[in-house]
Design goal:
The complex is a heterodimer of chains A (117) and B (115). In chain A, 0% of the residues lie in helices and 51% in strands. In chain A, the strands form 3 sheets. In chain A, strands 2, 5, 6, 10, 11 and 12 form a 6-stranded mixed beta sheet that branches. In chain A, strands 3-9-8-7 form a 4-stranded antiparallel beta sheet, with no helix packed on it. Chain A has a two-stranded antiparallel sheet with strand order 1-4. Chain B is 0% helix and 54% strand. Chain B has no helices and 11 strands. In chain B, the strands form 2 sheets. In chain B, strands 2, 4, 5, 6, 9, 10 and 11 form a 7-stranded mixed beta sheet that branches. The N and C termini of chain B lie far apart (36 Å). Classes of the chains: A mainly beta (117), B mainly beta (115).
């Protein structure tokens, strides 16, 4: 079984300040890792993902996340947030191997990021 | 591609009525997932299909809920009879085993209100 823990349910931050949203996971097998973003009244959109290779992955709008295997973490960071980043962010994990059940995503409970003008 | 399409976007019904939510996955995707999102319980996986076959329905809350996927381009989630505690946003998502990485693409959701 696998699980995802997002330690902060809400994170308020001032505009142009840096932010880190924390995500820890547990799994007995190798995993893929994802961050999804949900804007108000919308579905979830993929923000970035780690499949293999470089442990630092970036999104097109300035977010980055680093896979840390020893700490089983995949924290999301942005050096300077904008009002438009206000949204809920979900960390998710899935099994790396193929087979029944491996295509499920296990989601964390989400972190609501509020950017204050 | 138009992405995952869900209908209706909003549904208001009275307790005891039947509700049917619809989903059209992205063409070529072989996995389809139904989720429910509430403030209290967050995002819950209800059921998922692979090649139109239900694989895991352990998340379906009770017998009042049923889901079907008659073909690769259409799925329904039905609640009969509906209850106020079923009020939530229901998401459909699809993914492709062929591309690797297990990324899921979500629809815009159906906001269900049961009075």
């Amino acid at each position: 079984a696998q699980s995802v823990t997002q330690l902060d349910s809400q994170v308020p931050v001032f505009e142009e300040a840096p932010v880190e949203l924390r995500c820890n996971y547990s799994s007995s097998v190798s995993v893929y890792l994802f961050w999804y973003v949900q804007y108000p009244n919308q579905g979830l959109q993929l923000l970035l993902k780690y499949l293999s290779g470089s442990t630092l992955v970036e999104s097109i709008n300035g977010f980055e996340a680093e896979f840390n295997k020893s700490q089983t973490s995949f924290h999301l960071r942005k050096p300077s947030v904008h009002i438009s980043d206000t949204a809920e962010y979900f960390c998710a994990v899935s099994h790396r191997q193929s087979g029944a059940g491996s295509y499920q995503l296990t989601f964390g409970k989400g972190t609501k990021l509020s950017v204050i003008p | 591609d138009a992405g995952v399409i869900q209908s209706p976007r909003h549904e208001v019904t009275e307790m005891g009525q039947e509700v049917t939510l619809r989903c059209k996955p992205i063409s070529g995707h072989d996995y389809l997932f139904w989720y429910r999102q509430t403030m209290m319980r967050g995002l819950e996986l209800l059921i998922y299909f692979n090649n139109n076959v239900p694989i895991d329905d352990s998340g379906m809350p009770e017998d009042r809920f049923s889901a079907k996927m008659p073909n690769a381009s259409f799925s329904t989630l039905k609640i009969q009879p509906s209850e106020p505690r079923d009020s939530a946003v229901y998401f459909c998502a699809s993914s492709s085993s062929g591309t690797g990485g297990n990324e899921q693409f979500f629809g815009p959701g159906t906001r269900l209100t049961v009075l």
